[in-house]
Amino acid sequence: MKHQSQPNEKASALIISLFVILLIAAFIGGAMTLTTATVRQTDSSRDFSALESAAEGSLDFAYGVWAKTINSYYRPVTKNQLAGPMATVPSFSGFVYAPSAENGPLEINPVDEYGRPVASATATPSPSKISLDNYPGWVGYNSSYLASVRLAGTFVGGRTVKYGIKRAMNYSVVPLFQATAFFQDNLELYKTATMSIGGLVHTNSKAYVSSPSQGVLTFTGNLSYVEGYTDSVEPPQARTWSGYTPNSTHPPTFPNGFDEQVSQVNRMEPLGTDAKTILDTTDNNPNNDTMRELIEPPDSAHPDPTPISERRLYNKAGIVIHVTTSRNWRGQLTAATSVTTQNGASLNNGQVNKIKNALSQETIYDRREGKYVDLTTLDMKKAKSAFQGAHDFNGVVYIDQTAPDGSISTSDPKGIRLIKGEQLPKDGLTVASQNPVYIEGDYNTKGKQSSSAVFADAVTILSNNWDDNRSTSALFFRQATDTTVNTAIVAGFLPSGWTNPDTHVQYGYSGGLNNFPRFLEDWSNDTFTYNGSMIELFTSQIATGEWDTGSIYSPPHRVWDFDSNFVDSPPPGSLDAVSISRGALARF
Hints:
Elements: H1 2-73, H2 79-83, E1 95-97, E2 106-111, E3 128-131, E4 139-154, E5 160-175, E6 179-183, E7 187-189, E8 195-197, E9 200-203, E10 206-209, E11 211-212, E12 217-219, E13 223-225, E14 228-230, E15 249-250, H3 258-261, E16 262-264, H4 275-278, H5 306-309, H6 313-316, E17 319-327, E18 333-341, H7 349-357, E19 359-366, E20 371-379, H8 380-389, E21 396-402, E22 414-419, E23 429-432, E24 437-440, E25 452-456, E26 459-462, E27 483-486, E28 488-493, E29 518-519, E30 527-532, E31 534-539, E32 557-562, E33 576-587
Parallel strand pairs: 6-9, 6-31, 7-10, 8-12, 8-32, 9-13, 10-14, 13-16, 17-21, 20-22, 21-23, 22-24, 23-25, 24-26, 25-28, 26-29, 27-30, 28-31, 30-32
Antiparallel strand pairs: 1-4, 2-4, 3-4, 4-5, 5-33, 11-15, 17-18, 19-20
Helix pairs in contact: 7-8
């Protein structure tokens, strides 16, 4: 019986072996199919990623071309102005540009606020007023562009795949006169006397802010900074201040909360986005050295870079007053005055004479400078009717005082003084000078407040109680009284640790934003009320006296705020910063 079962057992084993072999073969075949599909899918995914990267690279190229073109014109550009720079586009191995019915292979189109292409190839986008998300509280006037690209590639299996993406690009003009304070250098408010600051405050550098133990510094608006913020670290050279005491500071007050009011942002550029390539102190061109160029007349013997030329207050002015002063053999100050017009403005003989009769010459002692300063004083009350009645006058007056050879120096300082400016021309007035400017008494306070600005090497506030005859007296005899000034101020500053190029002496603490408008009196029981916008862009070159309190002045109670009139009616000759940005990618 046993011998009869062996053939059946062998047959069964053979069948089982064959089944196992078939099963293994099926698994191997399935695995090979899966592996092939995975390889194809991986290859396809890799190809698509490469296509995606190429398209994004094309848009990066377009953004670079657009930014360079914008910077060459310093304003929004047309589609035709972009056509030349965009004539040559980058190539990518394995991919081709595939224009659609709506879009070319790689395009930059000026668009309106709704993203629709501007109808004419020779038109620029109409600026729209927007809130700047990256600068809390700020607004800008935005010109929009749309960059788009569509690429195609042949994938594994001969399948053609197209990929299109687009990105919004924005050129934003940001009025600087919408901030209570805008500082190019470090913003320092260190152990200030009790002080309240309303409106926006910004620095393109670091912010050092603190309250003293016996006072309160309050910000009621937003504070933004670029390089850093601290309310506990002393600013550079703080210990050189005669009033320095250690360990007596505490953070300022932010009524709406620190996180709500304080933010780190990108730089805002007053000369456009390529400012660093414009300014150059190493070449022989005196017209492109620093942002102080904005208050200087250009040197006609050298080229004036467009972004500077278009912002120079001398070039913007409708009325130019030039005073040349010297001393005769008796030591008496004499002056020769010229009044000219430009930019379409005109004055009749009577108006010219009114302006000349509003000018006088005096000398005062500036305790901070430690020098006598020859002043050309402009009586705003006497000149007001001439300014207001000038034909096609744009509201910008440029006035300077120089030696006969056209020079101004720290060794022979000359300044401009504005007096009796309680009421200004109704359409606004900007006074600009390459000299230091002294504002004496209430300014722009009577009647309907005008939009006003003062541009200068430095600005010093003299109270309603100022007396030239006491300028050399001890501080006790230079008593101030409450004074209000309503004007924007664009002026120079001496940063902490600045080295005087004439003496090679390194200075101490700058005095901070709270001393950006300078003082020469005892304000200890008085209030300086300020409404306007303070812009610091450069280092003073004429008014270079080192800051301290001591015998120079005692600080006022400061009440500062932004002049809300500037939102819709900025002063004549206003300055703008520029910001360019690009939005997120979107497929189409």
